[in-house]
Structure formats: structure tokens, C-alpha cells
């Protein structure tokens, strides 16, 4: 070993002033060099030294972040928020691959049939399903622990919603790029997607995390079938009037969602867990 | 001893059934056992006290915090450690990552302090050596200890444990008992279990719940005393006994109302529990238990 930490740097290390990458070099070197550790001990008071070792120990002990979590931290997301997002069930690779597969098949069918209706009808449902499944007992195995935690349920829901909605919109956007022949018309899924997602969430405190979004998805499908049966041209939800209506629904649902934010951890209609133990018949 | 958790008239209907029926209780520091048959309402009671499910009626406080308002509920949750009956895990998380995740849910945002706390609780349940191992690679007993570690994050004043020893082998169960006993030092622990042995060895108080109602509240000795003079031995199963089974010695142990001249045996906590479940006067047994003290 030819390199040792300079005394001046050791003093900065003790004060906590040594910045990366020199800090990392010093940490690594000190674990292996008894001489530098002895010099560090001479320069320091025992309390500060214990604190430094504790910090080093904690760093060595900390788990390596996964790819997704590491990416979030590099993008400026706080470490604790990144961990919460990494636990979001639908951000798992299997879900993402399923969404990509569905979108790829849909784009292929649109190209074969030369009609974007299927894509425009399906694309808003994917973010709705993703958000619905990211907070609730269906896919989140730690839901019961999360419900009784002091972290507000609405904050956790919004964190996950932003992440899942963002990922879903990006995938939908990529699929839109694969349909250049339809121009801006291929983007007519965006406002309905926001409207469906916000409405599904706004109904969650009243109807629960499964029934609320499921009803919204069913209503959207019914609306499309009715619109298609009544008109031979562009279905109403994808006309200018339909888009305006979707924007208004999205705004109203967001307003309602904010008003109901405290209900996300207190509503009695919210049935979070299956399998209650039953007592006597009433 | 000061009452730390008190509940009055808790009621919860679920569909057409009454899962909790006017449940009142008070807990103090130390481990209190919650005994009852399947469907007695134990898990429902624990979920209500853990604020996972709101009650239809009644009230309760935990360390002075009532869950009626959003602020009160949040303050209550800050004092709470909860180990659900079927704790879920993100299987790809390591033990450290999982406990770290729960620590974040418990509002521990400072990374250094949080990691120190994660290491402390993993040390407390003796899992430091496997903290980097994926949860899906840990045994059931180890995963249960990880869940206990998660419940211990933040040194909660009220620890709610829902059947933590189910599915563990005898050695793991003994290890878990040691951990629960340690956890009960200086804090209030409510332990739901089917194992009367757990209660006999760990608990300073016991509550028996049946059909959503409290049938007994008192000490384990008081519950055992309910079977004084009501356990006897016979060569064949006594048809008049409420319960009877052949022992390893080949004789029958009977519980109920013994015939004259029966060879009486020392009762166990399980005998007292069985008789309490059968007690037709179960509506107001808490006072009976207290009166026997």
C-alpha cells in the first residue's frame, strides 16, 4: 500500500468536512490501513471517532439500491421516497412487461385494421388499472402494515400514483409514436386516461380500492360501446367535445380527491382485508 | 399499575355478523394474552386497536391517544407496533430493506438514524447475520422474526401481536417467547394466541374472547383457578365431562363437573380456558375473575 490519507484530509474527515470522492477513498482506505486508523485516533477525540465509525459501519451495512430505486435517487428523489416507490407492486418488471405486451399487440392490431379505436379505448384503462393495483390489498402484501403506519395513506397513494401514472403514460406515449399515421388523433387517450384514473381514486374511499376503479373501467367500456353503436365516425369520447368533457371530469375528480384525502385512512366502507373473523350472528 | 390501553363498548358488525359485541378492557404494561377459539373476534379486536379497521361503536385510547380525529389517529399510530396475523412481505426485499421500508412508513426519514434503528431491531431479534438475505430465502420462523423486528421499529409503547407463533416449530416458538418477553419489558403487549402454553409462560394478564364478547379478564392464575375441583382422572372417559381425553399414562383426564369421590387433579390454564368457553354466564365474567383475586 503506497497511498495514505494525508493528515490534513484526516482532520477534515474528523470534522465531517471531507467531500466525495476523497471521502469514499478515505473510508475505503481506513478499513484496510491500521496506520491511518491509528493516526486518525491520535487526531480525534474518542466520541467523534466512534461517530465516524458508526457512520462508516452504517454505510457498509446499507443495502445496495436496486436499479429502479437507484435511478430515482439519481433523479433527485429523496432516499426514503425512492424506497417507498420501489415497493410499489405494479412497478415490478412483470407488470411492466405485461403492459408493454398488451400495447404492442394493440398497436399491431390497429395497424392491421387501420383503425385506432381499440388503442384509444384501451390506453386509458392501463394507467387506471396500474394505479388501482398500486395501493390496496390486491397486490400490495404489506398493505395492512402501511394502513396502520403514521405515514399518511394519501401521501403514500399520491407517491405511487405519480410513479405508476408517469410510467403508464410514458409507455402509452411510446405506443402512440408507433402510430404516426393518425397524428394528434392518436393522443386522444390522454385526457380520458387522466379522467378515469382520477375518478377511480376519488371513488376509492367510498367504494374501496377494487370496486371503485372497476366501476369506472366498466363505465368507460360501456360508454365506448354505446358511442360506437350510435355513430359511424369518430366515437364521441375522442371528439373535441368528448375531450373537453374528459378534462372537466378529470378536474372535478382531482378536486374531490383532495377534499377526501383524510378518508384514505379512516373510512369504514373501505374494506382493506379479506377474511375477517366472525363472531356471533347479529 | 397505570392503565395504558382502555376500550369501552367496542362493537363491530361485519355483514350480518357481530364480530365485536360490546368489548371493554383495560391493559397495563407487560404482556397480556388474548385467548379465544377461531372466529371469536380476536383478529378483529386487534385490527380495531391497531386502527386498521374502525369500530362501529364504542371508544378506546392508547397511551392517551384516541383515534377519533385524524391527528389523534396519527399520534396513536406513532405509539404502535403491529404484527398482523399474516404479515405480507415484498419477497425481493432483503430483511434489512423490508425493515427499512417499514421504518420509512413510520416516518423515519433520516437515513443514518433510520439504518441505525433497523440494525438495532434486527439485532434484537437475533437476525443480524442474515440481514442482507432476500426474504424469500428465509425460513418461516425467520420471516416472522423479521416482521417482529419491523413492529419494534421506533420503540412503540403498544405492541399488538396477532398469533405470532402459529406455524413455528417448538424450538422457534421458545425463541419467539423469549423475544416477546423482552419486548414486554416496559411496554404494553397484547398477544393473540391459540397456545395456552404461551399465555401461561409469558403473560401477566389474560383476556378470553368468545363470540365477540369478553368472557374473562384477569390473571392466568385466576383463569386456572376457575377449574379448581373440576378436573379429575378416570379409567374410562367420563360421559358427564365437558371434555375428556386419554393421557400418556393411559388414564382419562376429564374437565367439567366431577362425580362424587372422583380423583381430582391439579388444573391447568387450559382447563380453566375450556371451562370459561363453556360458561353460560360468560356475559359478565370479568368481575368474577377480578373477584377471585
Return residue spans of chain B where pLDDT drops below 50 for at least 5 consecutive residues. 282-293
CA radius of gyration of chain A: 26 Å
- Globular, elongated, flat, extended or rod-shaped: what is the shape of chain B? globular
- Described by the principal axes of the CA atoms, the overall outline of chain A is elongated
Count of helix runs of chain A: 14
The portion of residues forming beta strands of chain A comes to under 5%
Number of helices of chain B: 10
- Give start-end ranges of low-pLDDT stretches of chain A: 267-282
The topology string of helices and strands of chain B comes to EEEHEHEHHHEHEHEEHEEEEHH
Helicity of chain A, as a percent range:
55-70%
If you compute it from the alpha carbons, what radius of gyration of chain B comes out, rounded to the nearest whole angstrom?
21 Å
Widest sheet of chain B: strand order?
Answer: 5-6-7-3-8-9
Mean pLDDT of chain B: 87
The tally of strands of chain A reads: 1
State the end-to-end CA separation of chain A: 79 Å
* Mean of pLDDT of chain A: 80
Oligomer state of the chains in this structure? heterodimer
Keywords (chain A): Membrane, Transcription, Transcription regulation, Transmembrane, Transmembrane helix
Transmembrane segments (chain A): 95-112, 118-136, 157-180, 186-203, 210-228, 240-258
Protein name (chain A): Zf-HC2 domain-containing protein
Organism (chain A): Streptomyces actuosus
